[in-house]
Design goal:
alpha/beta, 3 domains, six-stranded parallel sheet, 51% helix
Length: 432
């Protein structure tokens, strides 16, 4: 779509999330979802009328579609989920019944809490991982480029990012800089006697490659080479002061450890490139897989892939995780409360519109009766402000307690006005 459009959320729009992740889906399924779902957000909006916005988050251990939907009697969330499953199945090649059995569905407040927890690293294979917050941010940026985001999703994802920053700065959960990359290197340590003497080849030049490079240098690795299937190795090498290679086969031949982390949809390293006869460790961090699993059968080759690394993820640090979840819960409650206030805005606007129309009528009458110095007008405006103050405060209180509909009903019952008035009158902005 590419129109950079951000759609305005409607009052009756609600949040819905369908998620397949390392907790409820196989690695094989997540791999398939990562390949075919790049255009899923635009497809969902184009083909399902009651979806107004979509942001898709696809990482090595999760696929999630965050949707803003029109929750009306003719378009309930169950219909949205079933339609969305069909589209995701179509674009990914995963059978709908298989996909349906592996998906979790979240609605409303659950979506808010889930995204905040995901962005903070609380739902990752390695609790507190560094990469996920950037992946969440880039998912929103892609939705902006594709024109699939909404004002509601913008606010949700921006708050998720700020919540993540707060969790990492105020708890110990992000202090260790943990990630799947670092976990994989910890597992590799039992096979590598001296990191400083190890020749390492990185295949890929994206964000994961940069993270991998930093983790390797932390372990004392100096002999680093990069190869890029897309031809970006030279630029990456200059930026990071390492060696670039234009031959994958030669680079593999010279390496003790090969780490792949590209976005290629087909394997870049096959059994024929593995050069049998010398012991090598290959770590595949790509999703979809960058390395043909058959390479593990080559003499001297040991393969570590994401699935193997994930199985050895450590138990979360309970105290830090508990504190982080409490912060996520507080952020969720505040976000939901503010959203509730915004949903009540039409009722407040309708009340103020009605009152200010009465005010202007009385001011006109006062002028007709000789209010030349404006004292009566000033008194009427002051009285109106005083009378509207308490209902405005009560409206916010009722919204935050979940009773906002009671305020809307009261405005309609007492004044007989439409609570869906779209705009506040000019008179409201003149209130002194």
């Amino acid at each position: 779509m590419g129109n950079h459009q951000v759609h305005v959320s409607k009052v009756n729009d609600v949040l819905l999330c369908i998620t397949a992740n390392h907790q409820n889906a196989s690695f094989e399924m997540l791999e398939k979802l990562s390949i075919g779902t790049s255009a899923a957000a635009a497809t969902l909006i184009d083909r399902i009328d009651f979806i107004s916005g979509a942001v898709v988050l696809a990482t090595c251990n999760r696929f999630e579609a965050y949707l803003e939907i029109d929750e009306s009697p003719t378009a309930p969330s169950a219909v949205t989920v079933e339609s969305a499953v069909g589209i995701v199945s179509e674009v990914s090649g995963v059978a709908a019944d298989v996909l349906r059995s592996s998906l979790s569905v979240k609605l409303g407040t659950q979506v808010v809490n889930h995204l905040f927890a995901v962005s903070s690293g609380l739902e990752s294979v390695v609790v507190g991982e560094d990469e996920i917050s950037g992946q969440v941010r880039r998912a929103l940026e892609q939705a902006r480029v594709d024109g699939t985001t909404t004002s509601g999703l913008e606010q949700l994802f921006q708050k998720a990012s700020s919540t993540s920053r707060g969790v990492k700065t105020r708890t110990a959960i992000g202090g260790a800089g943990r990630s799947l990359v670092r976990l994989g290197l910890e597992m590799a340590s039992s096979r590598i006697a001296d990191w400083s003497a190890t020749r390492v080849l990185i295949v890929g030049t994206g964000q994961y490659a940069a993270t991998t490079l930093a983790a390797l240098r932390d372990r004392g690795v100096d002999d680093l080479t990069v190869f890029s299937p897309s031809g970006r190795a030279e630029r990456f090498a200059i930026k990071h002061a390492i060696t670039a290679s234009d031959s994958l086969r030669d680079a593999v031949a010279d390496a003790d450890l090969v780490i792949t982390c590209t976005s290629s949809e087909t394997p870049v390293l096959t059994a024929g490139m593995a050069l049998p006869g010398r012991r090598r460790l290959i770590m595949d961090l790509g999703l979809p897989r960058n390395v043909d699993p058959a390479i593990a059968a080559v003499e001297g080759i040991e393969l570590l892939d994401l699935e193997t690394i994930s199985l050895h993820a450590p138990v979360e640090e309970l105290n830090a995780a508990s504190q982080a979840r409490e912060m996520v819960g507080q952020a969720t409650a505040e976000f939901v409360a503010r959203e509730a206030e915004q949903r009540l805005a039409p009722a407040i606007v309708a009340l103020r519109t009605h009152v200010f129309e009465l005010l202007e009528t009385e001011i006109d009458r006062a002028r007709a009766r000789g209010d030349e110095d404006g004292k009566v007008e000033a008194a009427l405006r002051h009285l109106t402000g005083v009378l509207l103050h308490t209902p405005s405060v009560r409206a916010r209180e009722l919204a935050r307690s979940g009773d906002g509909e009671a305020f809307s009903a009261a405005v309609t019952a007492m004044f007989g006005v439409d609570v869906t008035s779209p705009a506040e009158p000019e008179a409201d902005r003149r209130l002194a």
